[in-house]
Amino acid sequence: MSSGEPLDIVIVGGGTAGWMVGTALVSGLRPNQARVRLVESDDIATVGVGEATIPAMRDYNRFVGIDEVEMLRATNGTFKLGIEFLDWGFQGSNYHHPFGVHGQAMGGAAFHQQWNRARLAGHDFDIEEFSYAIAASRADRFEFPNPDPSLIESSYSYAYHFDASLYAKFLRKVAEGRGLKRTEGKVVAVNRDGLSGDVASITLASGEVVKGDFFVDCTGFRGLLIGQTLESPFEDWSHWLPCDRAWAVPCARGGRLTPFTRSTAREAGWIWRIPLQHRSGNGYVYSSAHISDDEAAAVLMGQLDGEALDEPRQIRFKAGRRTASWTRNVMAAGLASGFLEPLESTSIYLVQAAVMNLLKLFPGKRVEPALVDEFNRRIDREYDRVRDFLILHYHANTRTDAPLWKQCREMEIPDSLKQKLELFRRRGHAPSHRDGLFSLHSWTSLLLGQGVTPEGYDRLADNVPLSQALAEMERQRAAITRRVPLMPSHADFVARHCAVPARTAEVVA
Ligand SMILES: Cc1cc2nc3c(=O)[nH]c(=O)nc-3n(C[C@H](O)[C@H](O)[C@H](O)COP(=O)(O)OP(=O)(O)OC[C@H]3O[C@@H](n4cnc5c(N)ncnc54)[C@H](O)[C@@H]3O)c2cc1C
């Protein structure tokens, strides 16, 4: 960015996206680089869901300098070691997508290649027994990973569950403390420059006109600037991801404080359960073509762990993304830029990816097309990767109970996913983090969990004699079995490290 007058940035919208973007901008830019203002309307509610995250969020916290313990206390937060998937590949199936590795590589080949080689030779190990994160999840235990990479208890990562509305409030405090200016007001008009066509200002219901050099659209599904004003097209992906509605309801927390999100497949979609300190968040994400709203609400209310704490609330959506999240002098983040269902808790990550890329490609007073193109290329790649990952959950199934699952099994999938599936089936090769979300271990856990098994393996695995590989696998499995019981329970850990003070006893209960 060139020196001179600071850029006037106006963020429209104060949901999770608006406040994450605002906090990152005032943390990453100096006052002589940008003045940041956020406009939000008390009359227009935020979507009010979005309570599970992935480990990348820790990078966001580090970047903006948020202390996670303080954040978890402020948001009734808990820790997350992964997601448990029930009934996904087939009814009765149960697997975890852990935030961590499945075993250590051997002989230049990934661990799952050695595991598959052993399997093909008749040694039937359960690959989940080699994941520390899964063993800890199943035992409801949590502690911070050990930084010493030689120890088995270093082989995992973690994320958070939190109360979404409290999180936005928490960020607001941080951002305002660092100079962000907040204005309450409803935007009634978006005004474009007659010559350039860029957005020049917004008009509030009070009559105030807020001018800016650059605008960030965080107005949620409305996409007030990016869609309604600049008409950036929305690419519809609902033929691959047919769920288009959700019922969400909080309930009293019953039983264990699990360090994982639970996702249970149902006849017309899936149900989430997110454990917080003071309650559980629940929701049924479903396809309205396959179940009525009333039936879906009844299914959700019938499986709560505890007493409902509110009436269920319906949210409607369509899977897809803007073809250009950055158009002219407007960048969209959050629901304004696209929506992918919360099956892998990726929306908050996509907000993070948007603002971090904006900071890297930060514009001057005049927007440069090369920066815009690069931004859109990066964001498209992020969305494509998440999309393929999500579609795989639906496509690779052998469920016979309901039409949704047959439809998803038989649907034409994107070529990019076809190629990934074929490569995994042939030699067990899976994508890696290098190209965006997700890591090799995430892809492997999903592919194997959904019942896709490779018929061959990476020949590099043969560099280690099979007997040696088997002995090493036994050693790794035994190390996990020995170490996990020494961890504190998740409830004790939360009570000790980050309980909302009045709740310590409640968390442990
Ligand atoms: C069912 C469901 C479950 C989800 N679960 C997860 C999850 O577990 N993990 C995850 O990462 N993500 C999840 N998400 C996504 C997550 O909720 C969103 O990405 C996140 O909350 C960001 O929303 P937002 O800020 O873009 O939009 P919103 O929360 O809708 O905020 C929009 C803001 O714009 C303002 N606004 C709108 N119009 C105007 C106007 N005219 N004038 C002034 N202000 C205006 C509103 O007042 C509000 O402040 C989920 C989404 C859904 C639908």
CATH fold type of the largest domain? FAD/NAD(P)-binding domain
Spans where pLDDT lies below 50 across 5 or more residues: none
Give the overall shape: globular
Measured between the Cα atoms of the first and last residue, the distance is 53 Å
Mean pLDDT comes to 96
Bound molecules: flavin-adenine dinucleotide
Describe the structure.
The protein is α+β, with helices and mostly antiparallel strands. It has 3 domains: 7-51 and 163-235 and 319-384, FAD/NAD(P)-binding domain, CATH 3.50.50; 82-156 and 414-486, no CATH class; 245-316, D-Amino Acid Oxidase, Chain A, domain 2 (2-Layer Sandwich). Helices cover 35% and strands 19% of the residues. The longest helix has 27 residues, at 369-395. The model has no long low-confidence stretch (mean pLDDT 96). Bound molecules: flavin-adenine dinucleotide (FAD). The site of flavin-adenine dinucleotide has 38 residues, from helix 1, strand 2, strand 13 and helix 9.
Briefly characterize the structure.
This protein has helices at 16-28, 56-64, 68-75, 111-120, 132-138, 164-177, 224-229, 293-301, 347-360, 369-395, 403-410, 415-427, 440-449, 466-483, 490-497, 504-508; strands at 7-12, 34-40, 78-80, 82-86, 94-98, 159-161, 181-184, 187-192, 199-204, 209-211, 214-217, 234-236, 245-251, 261-266, 269-275, 280-286, 313-316, 320-322, 326-327, 330-332, 338-339. With 509 residues, it is an alpha+beta fold.
List the helices and strands and how they pair.
Blueprint: E1 7-12, H1 16-28, E2 34-40, H2 56-64, H3 68-75, E3 78-80, E4 82-86, E5 94-98, H4 111-120, H5 132-138, E6 159-161, H6 164-177, E7 181-184, E8 187-192, E9 199-204, E10 209-211, E11 214-217, H7 224-229, E12 234-236, E13 245-251, E14 261-266, E15 269-275, E16 280-286, H8 293-301, E17 313-316, E18 320-322, E19 326-327, E20 330-332, E21 338-339, H9 347-360, H10 369-395, H11 403-410, H12 415-427, H13 440-449, H14 466-483, H15 490-497, H16 504-508
Helix pairs in contact: 1-6, 1-9, 4-14, 9-10
The protein binds flavin-adenine dinucleotide.
